[in-house]
Amino acid sequence: MTDENKNSAHLNRRQALMMMGAAGAAGLMGPMAIGRDSAFAANADASGQLVLAFSQEPTVFNPLMPHIEVDEGLHYAVYDTLFDFDPEGEFFANLAAEVPTVTNGGISADGLNWRLKLKEGVMWHDGTPFTAEDVKFSLELLLDPDFRSFRSTGYKLMQEITVVSDTELTWTMSAPFAPMAAILASTFIVPKHAFDGVADKNNTVLNTAPIGTGPFKFKTRMAGDHIELEANETYHLDGPFLQTLIMKYVPDLNVMYTQFKSGDIDVVGLQWITPDHLAEAKGLAGKVVQVTGAATFESVGFNMMRPQFQDPAVRKALYMAIDKTSIINALYYGVPSPTETYMPSQSYYFNPDLPKHEFSIEKANALLDEVGWAKGSDGIRAKDGVRLAFSNSTTAGNHLREQAQQFIQQTFAMIGVEMEIKNLPPAVMWGDYWMNSEFDSVVVGLNALAGADPDTSDYFMSTMSPVRGGSGQNTFAYQNPKVDELLIKGAANFVPEERKAIYQEIQAVIREDLPFLPMFQYAVIKGWKDDVTGPAPNVNNRIDSWNVRDWART
To answer: How far, in Å, CA of 240 to CA of 479, rounded?
Structure first.
């Protein structure tokens, strides 16, 4: 390992904050720091097999196309980012030789000029050399009007991306953008040559047999059951230490727990062990069980294009008709914490002063009466020809969410609202139905942050709604000019203390608007066999396999 690589593995905490616009002074704190040797490992000692279970099925294999958290379970195993966040919110280099900063000359003092150095000798799984051309192609693909991009935030500010050499490229920013490093840390790089001669960039070999530079190579997939990956023995970081990684799809969370208990599953991933099994799980022999914080929040989300949800009073009344305390205590055994926002409480940018939720059927009814939503002969309210009736969808097989839906359905009925439960298999639920806002309402868990950075433009900026013609994750189709203005202002500011006030105001505006009804911040119950090493909770990443390169069997 060169001295340059030794020094670039981690940024100084303050450098990360000021130069890269990452987490604030407190950050999103994880339980441990993961040191990383950026030297080439060429590990030939990978051995053993591990079964990682997800309750949803990874189906989007091209990481630059619209996808959800579970798809990233595969992405982190097969692909690499330029750099990434560790559990303490610090960057570490991955495909990059060093994380660019003002100090090392990677970023100009005004934040407009970037120079990125890449590692030498990295290979794609098919033996093709990885170069700066692949990085340039990946970044420009995200803005290709003919490509279904998962995000445009930040990339659209990048201009004149220039390949200086196979291991160096530069670009300028049309404006300073504080979250840029965090966005790059969640951008997987794809091989340019996989698109050669392809007429439709949305339909390449990556959709069925992904090719990456990551620790594992794609081997086989049995749709609806599992994906099998094998070790990339010339991986450029330490690892992998497993010869075979199987990602198993177990949609029923009770079945997932039973298979973990019996030993058929080695590591329980998304949606983890449910709280009703926690007491027993903690006593299982040969198992490690941890309750860890997560940046994900659970909510009832609305399709804001539906006429039922246009009236702010309706959204406020629906929020008052959700008995969050009973749902958390009775169904989730008090494990997660109630929240009023999308921002995790561990974040420096969390707003603790938002109005506290009040469950009141009486006040909800009074509010709807006041604004003219009158009950019809069937007991369902209506106004101007619109009935307060809609469907609510989530993942079929998630029994706690399904029980929460039933509870919410009952309390909504008490205020003259008809909610039909319409649950779907995960691959259907979180496919076009979610991405293209085909739902009425959902029960959904989301991590809206870009790593440790507070920017949520991808989820709440008006222009980021796919159904409205944008490229992003704003599937609520939420529009508020004030939020747009604040997001732009926050992204242009590199000082954490100043950004804090901006992002706290955004939370206040969204709490008033209620495009989603926040219920709780996740506290997830993770489990793995005690002969498995490597799994590490990371509040700055959305999926368990963020460091699967480190996992091993003892």
So the answer is: 44
Which of 116, 106, 63, 83 has the alpha carbon at shortest distance from 237? 83
Q: What is the CATH number of the domain that holds 484?
A: 3.10.105.10
Indicate whether 409 belongs to any domain. Answer: yes
Q: How far apart are CA 529 and CA 517, in angstroms?
A: 36
Domain range for 435 is: 297-521
**Strand pairing class (389-393; 418-421):** parallel
What is the pairing mode between strands 49-54 and 244-249? Answer: parallel
Residue 70's nearest CA partner among 243, 251, 205 is 251
Residue located via tokens 């992904």: 210
What the block records as the tokens of 223 is 């749709």
**Distance separating alpha carbons of residues 57 and 60, to the nearest angstrom:** 9
- Number of domains comprising the chain: 1
> What is the SS3 assignment for 366-421?
HHHHHCCCEECCCCCEEECCEECEEEEECECCCHHHHHHHHHHHHHHHCCCCEEEE
User: 446 lies in a domain?
Assistant: yes
The answer as to whether 135 is a domain residue is no
Structural tokens at position 546: 């963020």
Residues 6+ apart with CB under 8 A from 410: none
pTM for the whole thing? 0.78
DSSP per residue over 73-100, as a string? HHHHHH--BSEEE-TTS-EEESSBSS--
Per-residue pLDDT tens digits for 67-79 = 988 999 999 999 9
Exposure string over 168-201, b if 16+ CB within 10 A, otherwise e: bbebebeebbbbbbbbbbbbbbbbbebbeeeeeb
Query: Can you tell me the mean pLDDT for 76-100?
Result: 93
SS3 at position 77 = helix
pLDDT tens digits, 211-263: 999 999 999 999 999 999 999 999 999 999 999 999 999 999 999 999 999 99
Strands 216-222 and 226-231: antiparallel
Is 479 inside a domain boundary?
Answer: yes
Cβ partners under 8 Å of residue 90, min gap 6? 10, 11, 13, 16, 22, 33
- Segment (H or E) for 522: strand 516-529
What number of other Cβ atoms are within 10 A of residue 224's Cβ? 11
CA distance 191 to 134: 6
The CB density around residue 3, as the number of other CB atoms within 10 Å, is 7
> 């029960």: which residue's tokens?
443
| Residue 502 identity (one-letter amino acid) | I
**Residue in 226, 249, 235, 337 with CA at minimum distance from that of residue 292:** 337
SS3 13: helix
